[in-house]
Amino acid sequence: MSHRTTPARFTLDLAFGIGVVNPRLYGSFVEHLGRCVYTGLYEPGHPQADSEGLRQDVLELVRELGVTTVRYPGGNFVSGYRWEDSVGPRQERPVRLELAWKTTETNEFGLGEFMDFCAKTGMEPMMAVNLGTRGVEDALRLLEYSNHPGGTQLSDLRAAHGDKEPYRIRMWCLGNEMDGTWQIGHKTAEEYGRLAAETARAMKMIDPDLELVACGSSGTAIKTFAAWEATVLEATYDNVEHVSLHAYYEEIDGDRDSFLASAVDMEHYIESVVATCDHVRAKLKATKRINLSFDEWNVWYQQRPNPHPVEDWQQAPRLLEDVYTVTDAVVFGSMLIALLRHADRVTAASLAQLVNVIAPIMTEPGGPAWRQTTFFPFAQASAHGRGRVLRVDVDSPTYTTAKFGEVPLLHATAVIDDETGDVTVFAVNRSQTDALPLDIDLRGVDAHALVEHLVLADSDPEAVNTADRPDRVAPHPATGTTVTDGVLHAELEPLSWNMIRLTAEQG
Ligand code: AHR
């Protein structure tokens, strides 16, 4: 550990921007997995359920979270997805084995219900097609059912099912994690590239304005990482707009210092995929750029046994119900910072997932809904991290990690609203033990008046929110933050996520 009391510093200047934040950066993900849908967002008979069975307490929290887009219906689930099972009269929908998570799918909640959920929360749907057990024809049928105005068998079927207006779904994922051997219908890069290219080409014959996401790797650890992206993009380049990235982090063997530096890996991942996209662009002599859809990211304790042991083929069992600590929320916030720092190329992202399954929102069947610790950084970033990301070159004391070597204690980004001149800084102090003094030179921006400095930190870094104590953890105002002669000074609490808002308005 070096120079613990030396302040971390950076300078803000509106002349040095990275890119405008695409609102789709604040997307999330709903998969038919565990209790995300059933007894999560959908629970007919719950005292808070509306006439369609959607829990209004959950809808309210989703709105408060500020989610802009929602990826659906998977995830691994999509590779066995039979969309036609999930539409039409509920009592006629088949009950099926769901192979990805070894559960039973009743199809009681389906495509129409999902679109209702999107409408009620104001979220843009981001639909995935099944390229595991299915292919081009099925993708076209789903697209016709969803988006064609009428006068064809499938668009008229949608109208007969009660949705006369087309869904107008613009973003579509071409399968999910097709590089993974766990995936139903797993493929080589060549096989997937060919299928994705043909599917994309045909979908664009129906609507050239669709935005399509080709599957990148399921993570950097997989052996085919980067070569997969290069092969797939060479095959699909003309007909896709995005390539996907997925990353989950967890604390392993008590190595908290490395865990706190997870975003170092995430930024390296983003930069590697950008390099691969641009390599293919050069090779193909293409003019357009492929952007990144980071459509699964979160903290996920994959190595921990499920505290709720479940039998195979149950309906909506308790799966992946991670309970997030303050430490997890700080790492999570740092991941948001990583996304924002690359807003020029990461133009869509989906927090995996939304309710109960590695989620910011938890529910009990027949009981309450509450916010996990990770809810707060997301809600704050979505509310205030809109506008143009400014370049933040941090000069910070460092600490030593086993996985990533020397890492800056400060991880930060800043977003400016170019209309008002207001600036919001998001910052994480990775030190487990010490407060970190921070000086921000505001010479290049007009925002010199402090609006608020909110912190998520706790004397107990293991503190969590639960059904019994849903408000145990929440952000609190920082003390002692000042702006003097155009320099902001703050003390960032140990192991903390911080949002500092500055306005250009004269008091
Ligand atoms: O989000 C949980 C799972 O993680 C998704 O179904 C899959 O795509 C990924 O491996």
From TrEMBL:
Return the protein name: non-reducing end alpha-L-arabinofuranosidase
Q: Which InterPro entries does the record associate with it?
A: Alpha-L-AF_C, ASD1_cat, GH, Glyco_hydro_b
Renumbered to this chain, region (Disordered) spans 462-482
Cite the GO molecular-function annotations of the record.
Answer: alpha-L-arabinofuranosidase activity
Q: Which reaction does it catalyse?
A: Hydrolysis of terminal non-reducing alpha-L-arabinofuranoside residues in alpha-L-arabinosides
Q: How is the quaternary structure described?
A: Homohexamer; trimer of dimers.
To which protein family does this belong? Answer: Belongs to the glycosyl hydrolase 51 family.
Q: Is Hydrolase there in the keyword field?
A: yes
Alphabetical list of SMART domains matching this protein:
Alpha-L-AF_C
The answer to whether keyword Oxidoreductase applies is: no
The EC category is hydrolase
Keywords, sorted A to Z: Carbohydrate metabolism, Glycosidase, Hydrolase
A single Pfam family, by name? Alpha-L-AF_C
Biological process, per Gene Ontology: L-arabinose metabolic process; polysaccharide catabolic process
E.C. designation(s): 3.2.1.55
Q: Which organism is it from?
A: Streptomyces aurantiogriseus
Chain ranges of the Alpha-L-arabinofuranosidase C-terminal domain: 295-496
